[in-house]
Write a structure and sequence with these properties.
elongated
């Protein structure tokens, strides 16, 4: 159907792009040949859907020739032989349709030239001496690696590290490659620990841990560069993404300093070597950067006095680093940082002075009603006293009367001397029926 043809067309285009990428990156010959065979296979599938039997036959036979040659050239060639057997029914079907239409079978259009190219590459690979033992030189030590899986992993890690250094401005690609390096180092360390009777296993473990930590540092430095570019306005923040803040750089430099501390803990690194001294210098350098961005955080929160103190501390870190390094690139960055510290410190000092002036103006503006308030009623307020007229009222003399609960001053002792009038005439006399009437009426 048309939909399937579109899908196979897109796959063929991507396969051709993959082949071109392998050639441009100068991959090893087996990788280039495999990418070329995959391109022929995709061309064959596209022509198979179009029922173009002649072109389909040429593509499939070319792919089969490449896979068969690769199967003979490498040790693990079973996968390539299976791929050849998978295409055999399709080749036979193409031959049947060409013969049915009384067409001529031509498979030499691409195949013969391709065979000559393959023979030359395979012959050059066969004539090259194979290196059964790989010698690793690191920190004055030479380690012989005979384990095949470790050698393959090490070659891939070295290739990725080299590609990560050559990415240029494509920082996202560099982050992806460094992520692969970090994950690959963890895998190789597990392989080294599982391997039996492996010489210098401790040194290999330390080396791959060294690669992992240094790659992690490079990864976080790339992330810090991205955040710094956004803060400086070199790179615009895309809509929907998080705004860059100085706090992000403080967190990244914390992680970098922790990784340098872990790097110093590797046993195989010589304590008196040049690399070990460079760890101390880099630690001082990134500590200065971390201190600078902490000061930027306080400056953004209007804590100017704290920011000034941190800028002064950052200047101390810069001076210590300049006295310890001879790297011209680092010296240039430190000089630029020193100028930036001076500029930001002046800004913080000016903001602190302006804020103190505004506070003084607010404090001196005291209303007459506030001047007459009792001091004990406004102890939680600060009032600036510039003259005797602004002195607060401590107390009022004489003090105001206050109600105080107490016993009566004189007790009522005259009640015993009072003569009351005789009220007997007004008292009702009880008759004979008084008790009965009281019972009837409930009195």
């Amino acid at each position: 159907s048309i939909q399937f043809r579109k899908q196979w067309y897109q796959r063929r285009v991507r396969a051709e792009e993959l082949e071109g990428t392998c050639v441009s990156l100068k991959c090893d010959p087996s990788t280039q040949l495999e990418a070329k065979a995959y391109t022929h296979y995709m061309r064959g599938m596209l022509n198979f859907e179009k029922a173009n039997w002649q072109r389909c036959l040429v593509a499939f036979t070319s792919a089969q020739k490449i896979y068969s040659k690769l199967a003979d050239a490498v040790e693990e060639g079973g996968m390539y032989r299976e791929k050849c057997e998978e295409m055999t029914p399709k080749v036979q079907y193409c031959l049947y349709n060409i013969q049915s239409s009384r067409g001529t079978i031509d498979t030499n259009e691409v195949g013969e030239e391709l065979l000559a190219e393959l023979d030359g590459i395979i012959a050059s690979r066969a004539s090259a001496p194979t290196q059964a033992v790989y010698e690793l030189k690191w920190e004055g030590k030479t380690v012989s690696i005979t384990h095949d899986e470790i050698k393959i992993q090490l070659a891939q890690l070295q290739d990725n590290i080299k590609l990560a250094k050559d990415v240029g401005t494509n920082q996202e690609k560099g982050l992806e490659l460094l992520d692969e390096v970090v994950g690959g180092c963890r895998d190789v360390v597990q392989i080294v620990r599982r391997a039996e009777k492996l010489e210098s296993a401790d040194t290999l473990t330390d080396y791959f841990n060294y690669l992992r930590i240094t790659s992690t540092i490079e990864r976080f430095l790339l992330m810090a560069q991205q955040v710094s570019d956004k803060l400086k306005g070199v790179v615009e923040t895309r809509p929907g993404t998080k705004m860059a803040r100085p706090e992000d750089l403080v967190r990244l430099y914390d992680i970098i300093l922790q990784n340098y501390a872990d790097l110093k803990g590797i046993v195989s690194i010589e304590k008196e070597g040049e690399f070990y001294r460079s760890i101390d210098v880099n630690t001082m350098f990134y500590r200065a950067l971390r201190c600078f961005y902490i000061a930027e955080c306080h400056l953004g929160q209007s804590n100017w006095l704290n920011a000034i103190v941190l800028y002064d501390k950052c200047n101390e870190h810069v001076s210590e680093t300049l006295a310890s390094t001879s790297d011209k690139e680092m010296i240039g960055e430190l000089n630029a940082l020193s100028k930036q510290i001076y500029s930001q410190r002046c800004s913080a000092h000016a903001s602190a002075f302006l804020h103190s002036q505004l506070q003084e103006e607010e404090m001196t503006d005291i209303s007459p009603a506030d001047k007459n308030r009792i001091l004990s009623n406004c102890l939680d307020q600060f009032r600036l006293v510039s003259s005797a007229a602004d002195l607060p009222t401590i107390a009022t003399l004489p003090p105001d009367f206050q109600t105080t609960p107490c016993k009566p001053t004189f007790f009522d002792i005259s009640l015993n001397q009072i003569e009351f009038p005789d009220l007997s005439t007004r008292v009702e006399k009880e008759g004979a029926l008084s008790g009965l009437s009281r019972w009837i009426w409930g009195r």
